[in-house]
Amino acid sequence: MLDENMQDFHGRLARVARGRAIGRTSAPAPGRRRWVAARALLFLFLMPIAVKAAMLLRLGGAEYEARLDILRQGTTAQKAGAAVMQVDPATARLADWLRGLGG
User: Fold this and answer.
1) What is the pTM for the complete model shown?
2) Which of 33, 43, 54, 68, CA to CA, is 20 to 30 A from 62?
3) At the top level of its lineage, which domain of life is listed (predicted)?
4) Using CB atoms within 10 A of its CB, is residue 82 exposed (0-12), middle (13-18) or buried (19+)?
5) Are 80 and 72 in contact (CB under 8 A)?
């Protein structure tokens, strides 16, 4: 039994060695790992802008600002939320672009 397991283990090692000899590895290349991290940061940066643009498009500018005014009069956390949710140029531009897609 032990010999079968050892033979199986050595067979797997040989397959891994052959794969590395022709350039196949299971670990991602270092440049790929950086790209994955950059994509995650880009997603974290762009997603709030997309959410704000969708809300701006759905509510309209006046209603969106009215709701922000309500938040600005609230607690410290609500004031911080209002500061984050205020309309910036990227949000306005994306909302306009989305509005153009809708007809």
Assistant:
1) 0.63
2) 43
3) Bacteria
4) middle
5) no
